[in-house]
Amino acid sequence: MKEQRTEKILSILESRRGTPVSGEEIAKELGISRAAVCKMIAKLRREGFRIEAKTRSGYIYSGESGAFTVRSVTRLLNNPDDISLSVTESVDSTNNALKIEAEAGAREGRVLIAKTQTAGKGRRSHSFFSPKSGLYMSVLLRPKISASDSLLITTAAAVAVAKAIRNVSGKEAGIKWVNDIYLGGKKVCGILTEASIDFESGTLGWAVLGIGVNLLAPEGGFPAEIAQTAGAVFEAEEYAEEKKSLLAAEIINVFFEIYRMLPQKDFMEDYRARNILLGKEVNLIRLDQIVGRGTVVGIDSDARLILRLPNGEETALSSGEVSVRGL
Predict the structure, then answer these.
(1) Exposure string (b/e) for 150-162, b if CB count within 10 Å is 16 or more?
(2) pLDDT value at position 133?
(3) Which of the four pLDDT bands, split at 50, 70 and 90, describes residue 59?
(4) How far is the CA of 242 from the CAs of 137, 273, 312, 313, in angstroms?
(5) pLDDT on residue 127
(6) Cα–Cα distance, 232 to 76 (Å, whole number)
(7) How far apart are CA 194 and CA 210, in angstroms?
(8) Strand, helix or coil at 302?
(9) End-to-end CA distance of the chain
(10) pLDDT in tens, 195-211
């Protein structure tokens, strides 16, 4: 409720941009006290909105200073009515938070973005480093697909992120099967899809799609354990705060454009074209153990990785992870 009132205050001020609006007028319209208005105005200022207080006149709004807010993202969405967006300062994991909402019946299109995570999640229960220099979002989906097709959500998201990075930064990103986005040989994004399966029907009850993007290298650099493999979408000199809003909105826009046509699998051509493993010798990893080796020869229409084994046979992988030297 408080967030909705803060957004309403911003809407009132924006509709009268450049002219004063009294605290009394805002308080009356929202049915709250003037003290509450003052607190919400202070919150908006902390988020980067330029709001000046004029004695005996009121509050004057002159615009945003690149602040990352619900409004800064929503105004860039193609179909804002289909998206229920929240932005929070910090959360343990955006995926964890949305899984709770999914079980409580939240609708498809619920999106949570956190400015930082204290317990970000990667694949195979690994942690995901989540400093303030990144973008961390989760999307709640209720897809009408079989559990066996759930891999399509992750691959569709990978294509959406790669396209969004290109549209916002002009840089072409590649995809490392199944869920990592690379720029210049460095990982800049990880994707994790978690789902609830209806075992009677064999379909998904819900899916939560988590996306973590390194916008900038963090102050002091990446932790030692990922310093050789992690990268960022932007260099410091080419980054402006509004690019975070642009990229968040573009990922949402492109993903849902693909998602609406998910069963047709038209996006798989783009996924294959961005495959950075083609022709490379890789190790197949399960439960942190190398269980096999082979050469990547392609990706099929079900997003399975096709490996040619040392004996010349080919196998299709729908799960597990592969590693290659230098990535």
Answers:
(1) bbbbbbbbbbbbb
(2) 86
(3) very high
(4) 16, 30, 51, 50
(5) 55
(6) 23
(7) 8
(8) coil
(9) 45
(10) 998 887 888 999 999 99
Helix, strand, or coil here: 145? coil
Amino acid at 212: G
**DSSP symbols for 86-125:** EEEEEES-HHHHHHHHHHTTPPTTEEEEEEEESS-B-GGG
Cα distance between residue 215 and residue 242, in whole Å: 12
Q: Cβ contacts of residue 158 below 8 Å, gap of 6+? A: 175, 178, 179, 180, 181, 191, 271, 274
Question: DSSP label at 32?
Answer: -
- In single-letter form, the type of residue at position 147 comes to A
Q: What tens digit of pLDDT does each residue of 159-203 get?
A: 999 999 999 999 999 999 989 999 999 999 999 999 998 887 888
Count Cα atoms within 13 angstroms, Cβ side, for 115: 11
pLDDT classification of 242: cutoffs 50, 70, 90: confident
Which tokens is 64 given? 């945003």
In which residue are the tokens 């207080």 written?
53
CA dihedral 163, 127, 303, 154 (to 10 degrees): -50
Report the DSSP pairing between strands 321-323 and 281-286: antiparallel
Q: What share of the chain is helix, strand, coil (3-state, %, to 5)?
A: 35, 30, 35
110-117 and 84-91 as β-strands: parallel, antiparallel, unpaired? parallel
Q: How confident is the model at residue 8 (pLDDT cuts 50, 70, 90)?
A: confident
Which residue do the tokens 């559990």 mark? 147
Output the pLDDT for position 49: 80
Pairing label, strands 186-198, 289-299: unpaired
Per-residue tokens: 87? 């932005």
Q: Which residues contact 316 (CB under 8 A, 6 or more apart)?
A: 300, 302, 304, 305, 306, 307
- CB neighbours of residue 314 within 10 Å: 12
* Token pair recorded at residue 319: 């799960």
